[in-house]
């Protein structure tokens, strides 16, 4: 017997490429194309001027950030949980809520970290198929599986939780609020997590449902719409009880997950609503322009309410398009997976970047 026999082995999440060449147009990881607000720069200057404070442990409750989020979203601070990006928040949620040995449900086409966490924490799961148009069907049912809202063949007693992004990733498709409430209401004995990483780009948040349903947790991130992917700030909003359980597990795991600069800069960015809205509106305008250009070029894609589009072309395979764009120093994301291997996910960049993408696509397609 070897020491390796005791190692927990899992298939890790594969993140989007981070190229070293800074001259490429990087549209593969859904980062914000604009810098953080000047409020963050002011906060960063304060951290620099108070450099000696970094010898101290940060506020384990992340009070400045929690207070800023509670103020912006008009909830009690006890309803807010923060972490090192939404990945940390969701991972902690899996560790906290999905411990019964029963399965969880999530879409078959979705954020590819969900099955990684499930395998890491030894949580059984069922990937529920999306419709052919990539929409979530709350009553979806296949033999031997289960429905989100309603009893499937396996029996609802075998399910302990549900998680899905809204809008979904990598498709960009939004699930309307009535369907979300139907899922939450049909599962009062299960935790329902709605991952709203992309909600700020024109979709409707399910946050109002938190006051009505104790079993609902909403997760968001500063990595997309608030331009802080490099700082790692994420948060969740839910009932006081659900947040209390999350904090208990977090403080049993690592009380100081967030560092002082992230707390202070995150709080400053959360309070700069004007800048936040200005860049999301700008990205939305660019996305809508880009969608029209894609239609003119013959692309098919589900309607997007995110900062990316999920596209395919009837004449050129997605893998070939990805390679030819790379030759022109434009990097986009390709998923070599069933049902979506004919699609590319293209992040919305600046107007200049997206014009360069259109020029490249016209050249590739001979248009």
CATH class assignment of the largest domain: Alpha Beta
Arithmetic mean of pLDDT:
92
Number of domains: 2
Annotated CATH homologous superfamily of the largest domain: Type I PLP-dependent aspartate aminotransferase-like (Major domain)
- The succession of helices and strands, N to C, reads EHHEHEHEEHEEEHHHEHEEH
**Helical residues, percent:** 25-40%
Radius of gyration: 21 Å
Global outline: globular
- For this structure, the CATH topology of the largest domain is Aspartate Aminotransferase, domain 2
What is the strand content? 5-15%
Instruction: Provide the CATH architecture of the largest domain.
Output: 3-Layer(aba) Sandwich
What would your notes on this structure say?
There is one protein chain. This protein has helices spanning 38-49, 63-73, 85-97, 114-120, 177-185, 240-253, 260-271, 273-296, 318-327, 351-365; strands at residues 25-27, 80-83, 103-107, 125-128, 159-165, 191-195, 216-221, 234-238, 308-311, 330-334, 344-347. The termini are far apart. The strands form 2 sheets. Strands 2-8-7-6-5-3-4 form a 7-stranded mixed beta sheet, with helices on both faces. By secondary structure, it is an alpha/beta fold. It has 10 helices and 11 strands. The protein folds into 2 domains: 15-36 and 274-365, Alpha-Beta Complex (Aspartate Aminotransferase, domain 1), CATH 3.90.1150.10; 38-271, Aspartate Aminotransferase, domain 2 (3-Layer(aba) Sandwich), CATH 3.40.640. 35% of the residues lie in helices and 14% in strands.
Short description:
The chain is built from 10 helices and 11 strands. The protein has 367 residues and is of the alpha/beta class.
